[in-house]
Known about the structure:
86% of the residues lie in helices and 0% in strands. The protein is mainly alpha-helical. It has one domain (39-253). The radius of gyration is 21 Å and the shape is elongated. The relative contact order is 0.16.
Amino acid sequence: xxxxxxxxxxxxxxxxGIGAVTLFTLRGLFRLRPFYRRAFAAQLVQIGWLSLPVVxxxxxxxxxxxxxxIHSGGARFQASDVVPAIVAIGMVRELGPVLGGxxxxxxxxxxxxxxxxxxxxxxxxxxxxxxxxxxMRWLVTPRLWAAMLTxxxxxxxxxxxxxxxxxxxxxxxxxxxxxxxxxxxxxxLERWDVVSGLLKGVVFGLIVAVCGCWFGIxxxxxxxxxxxxTKSAVVAAAVGILAANFxxxxxxxx
Length: 254
């Protein structure tokens, strides 16, 4: 009976964990009164504006590399003319949201987990409770809403930069006409492609913020505990983004 018992225990622990994270997320999203506007504005800058360089550079080089790869592969089948369409669709549907989310996860989830974990270690969270300030409203709610609002914007900007990266390579290295390249891009790109990528950005932003806040608040004591929380936040956010991308892609395009 030991294998059955271990399987049941693992299933109960997983279910309990999913329920705890779900309740944590709902409390963080809907505890809006009082709403700390300054903390929210600071997180908009921290999560959104300061993440723009890394997201933009990632999108630029990804779009450029994607154009080279599609041109090289399409040349085998005399289909190299599809470079503009596939670069645009690939960036907007998949690569833009996923890579943007992963870059934000690497930068933001680790930062949130380290910051909140350090506050827990130094007993600043206990001080907030002593001062009758709800840590969820002060620490979690601004970060969740800021991530949900800024990551789609980052995804949209990354999509544009990625398409421009493909355009640069296509016109400067692959012999495409600039006007024809942009015309093909706009002809094959549909509105739902763009909207689906932005919706993915909302979900990915929520995943990043939840992982950072959850592991930060539940970090262990001491420097080792904060380090483990930071590592766990980044890993969980990355895996969550990839899993959510699979589910959302099936819902949007199946």
